[in-house]
Amino acid sequence: MSYICRRFSAQTFDADPGDSGWWQQQFIGLLSQGSETIEVLGGPQGSGWFWGSPKCCAEVRGADGSWDGGRGPGLRCQVTLLFAQFQLTVPVSVVFAKGALPGAQQRRLPFADTQEEESLLNRKNQADAALLPLQEDSLGALTVYVIPETSPLLPQGVGVYVGKHRSAVMRCPQGPGDVLAAVSARVQQIVQAMSFTTDSITAALSDRVPMDQLGTDTRRPFKSSLGYEITFSLLNPDPKSHDVHWDIEAAVSGYVQPFLDKLGSVANFSVDSQILYYAVLGVSPRFDKASSSFILSALSLPHVINPVEARLGSSATSLYPVLNFLLYVPERIHSPLYIQDKDGAAVGTNAFHSPRWGGIMVYNVDHPAPDKALLPLRVDVDMVRVMEVFLAQLRLLFGISQVPLPEEFLLESPGNKGLTDWELDRLLWTRTVENIATVSTTLTSLAQLLDKIGNIVIKDDVASEVYHAVASAQTAMLELASGHLGSAFQASKEAVISSERAFFDPSLLHLLYFPDDQKFAIYIPLFLPMAVPILLSLVKILREAKQSKKEPTKTD
Amino acid sequence: PPLPVAKPVPMAAALPGPRWLPAAAALLWACCGSAATDGIQDQAEQFFRSGHTNNWAVLVCTSRFWFNYRHVANTLSVYRSVKRLGIPDSHIVLMLADDMACNPRNPKPATVFSHKNMELNVYGDDVEVDYRSYEVTVENFLRVLTGRIPPSTPRSKRLLSDDRSNILIYMTGHGGNGFLKFQDSEEITNVELADAFEQMWQKRRYNELLFIIDTCQGASMYERFYSPNIMALASSQVGEDSLSHQPDLGIGVHLMDRYTFYVLEFLEEIHPASQTNMNDLFQVCPRSLCVSTPGHRTDLFQRDPQNVLITDFFGSVRKVEITTETVALDPNLVGLETRVPNDEMATEPLKYAEQLPVAQIIHQKPKQKDWHPPGGFILGLWALIIMVFFKTYGIKHMKYIF
């Protein structure tokens, strides 16, 4: 099987002929291009360490330039190469409001596509909703509206307003000189915030980047997977004192389900919930006299999770990664319980999360005066407060983190959905790139394996899955280059499914390793004793035949 | 309920090395410029030092039969330590022949002891064996490692690790130069093992891997590894035998192997918060105690063993971060944005189709089975018998039969 190495070039959307690449975000993918023999170099620079088999090597480039870790001993081999360059294009349309640009500048605009749209916009919230029908709402496409500097639409001190959907409103920067250049710089900043940056793409390809270049953010979110299972657990260690009720069904359908529906194109989600009684934390909290409350310090938090995890039963149901969200109602004798961070300050949310696992929140119950207490105390959990924290943790665990933005940017809150459209786009960009990279790794290593072990039988459905994976990945690359994010993501998801199915097919197990000395050791004692009389009789037959030829034939 | 332990765990009393060493390491790390200026960020950096977020363990005992009691005891002791230090059963794949506890030759049924005088029962009552008895084969072991498992396998029998998992692999049994014997019927060679680890690396199924083997000539098994991030320990060098520790006269067999016995003693002093590093594990069981020379291999490992904590592999210390932000939710919008719940399902009563008309079955006459002429094997057998009969007795006797 061999795959043709292809290079895709995106359609360049030149706004300014003298400055090509202005609208085009281009990132060099992490597989080298052109050559058929490739070398994998990883590890710290200059160490010459090899990832992968010493027999096969592939050259890895950094995201912004070549990055060569040095060469060392190792055989080159023919490894077929799938993908050359990643080209990601974001379709951005910039709409200039009337009067935003001075007249001279306006004539310089290369694309004279003036559409007169009359809409009265008073406040920014209305603006977002009102502008929504004006723009094309496809995944990945962005619209930036440039308004005059003196417009009252945005409050003072705010230069850019980023809405819930895929639009942003910015003030036209005032000043002498080239206003268009300033506008373009600002627009590029906005587009980077709303779609992707070099860092986020590098993080998506974190498999190939050496460990010390990564930040902590990359280790927190879950890897791209086809489905996730979310479990909400209520831990009640003291049922004698607290009779805890939580309306989890309503909370899930009201707060969590809209969020998951919005992420529905990304993966399948299944949500379940449980209540655990007599489940204690593994750590006993200290009593703090100053605040007359119990404290869990940050150092003891890592040991909280393990004793509980055995009881969660989260691993019995499905093969997808599991996110656990625990709500812990402390015992009466340990109430109230607060979590302290490293500096000793109490944490506002009273919650913490563990990367790639889930989150825990401690819910303190108000106890009335002891003489009025009637045990067990009925507790109705305030699900809004709880879900605010859990949704924030869910966002973090999916990698939807806050983007660092300059001061004058104003972000619209996502509301009950928990996720803005452009945050979803960010997730989809990184996930698509990650999926395509995974597909190329999987198929390359599968090809290496099959080349190395000549006598593995490749079934027809494995072969068809491989072809399907290659075709889908190529489609995804094309769609990425042309800016169709939705179809690119779907194609990349299909490619991942096919490639994983092909790679992990149970029939591809190589068990047979016959070193030569073992072959001698096994077969010679078997066949040599048998072979001796056979050979001797063959020799005898040949000798007799020769003798009978030599003798003159007898004739009667 | 806590498992019975032979001796109490001394907490933090066995911190080897000078006290300033961890602080100096932390200082050095902070100076290395991880761009951590914020206090909380610094803490997060320290927590993330090893780069893993979960732990897995694959514990394999490759022998069966009563006289290999010590291998089962070895594996179960490591299993107990690993569970005590925090790895849950769902993250442990335990492969045992499991024929000790209920063996007819066991004078104390349902127990497996690891210390003489029957001090410590490592079998306990919450052992979860994932692959037992004849399921412990080379094929299953390789399937677990590489992930090429038939889709009907339950979750407890799978190794669902990802690229941020640290995996501990412990193998014990009878081995030789370059191979390990599985249940007296097959072998796994060091080349196959190295290829399996390479397959794991290609799919990023591990972050770091610790491979411990306690067999004769164990060092030959890790000679052929070529994938990064693997650290290996073995109980004996090539050409040496690993010896067993001591027999118990009541049970009649040797209870543990020396190397694992001293490793276990070392692990009993580790608790989940301890800072002991790998260099101390390398010093366990010197030649005077073990008779064989334990070996280790760290050239494939990227970090310095000095910085690798024992709990990075044997325990499961979770990294945590404080949640500082919340999402603003408006409870008033909930009614508007939820979908209409579908209650069509509650209204229609369910009807079942008639599957088995009982009346027909009861009064049914037995159906006449179609007669088929005998074919294949039966035919051949009868032909053979008849031929032999007539060859022996001759055809003229046929008239006496009919």
Automatic annotation (TrEMBL), chain A:
Q: Which GO terms describe its cellular component?
A: GPI-anchor transamidase complex
Q: Where in the cell is it found?
A: Endoplasmic reticulum membrane
**Which keywords does UniProt give here?**
Endoplasmic reticulum, Glycoprotein, GPI-anchor biosynthesis, Membrane, Transmembrane, Transmembrane helix
The main location is endoplasmic reticulum
Q: Which Pfam families match?
A: PIG-S (PF10510)
Q: How does it sit in the membrane?
A: Multi-pass membrane protein
Q: Which GO terms describe its biological process?
A: attachment of GPI anchor to protein; GPI anchor biosynthetic process
Parts of the chain that traverse the membrane: 520-542
Q: Spell out the PANTHER family in the cross-references.
A: GPI TRANSAMIDASE COMPONENT PIG-S (PTHR21072)
- Upper classification of the organism: Eukaryota, Metazoa, Chordata, Craniata, Vertebrata
Enumerate the InterPro entries for this protein: PtdIno-glycan_biosynth_class_S
Query: Hey, which pathway is this one from?
Result: Glycolipid biosynthesis; glycosylphosphatidylinositol-anchor biosynthesis
Q: What is this protein called?
A: Phosphatidylinositol glycan anchor biosynthesis class S
UniProtKB/TrEMBL annotation, chain B:
The UniProt entry annotates the active site at: H174, C216 (nucleophile)
- Keywords assigned by UniProt? GPI-anchor biosynthesis, Membrane, Signal, Transmembrane, Transmembrane helix
Q: What does the record give under GO molecular function?
A: GPI-anchor transamidase activity
Q: Is Transmembrane one of the keywords UniProt gives this record? A: yes
Q: Name one GO cellular component term.
A: GPI-anchor transamidase complex
- The reply to whether Ribonucleoprotein figures as a keyword in the UniProt entry is no
Q: In which pathway does it act?
A: Glycolipid biosynthesis; glycosylphosphatidylinositol-anchor biosynthesis
Which residues constitute the signal peptide according to the record? 1-36
What family does the Swiss-Prot or TrEMBL record give for this protein? Belongs to the peptidase C13 family.
Describe the protein's quaternary organization and the partners it interacts with.
Answer: Heteropentamer. Part of the GPI-anchor transamidase complex, consisting of PIGK, PIGT, PIGS, PIGU and GAA1. Interacts with GPAA1. Interacts with PIGT; this interaction, via a disulfide link, stabilizes the expression of GAA1 and PIGK and links them to PIGS.
Name the UniProt record assigns to this protein: GPI-anchor transamidase
Organism equals Chelydra serpentina (Snapping turtle)
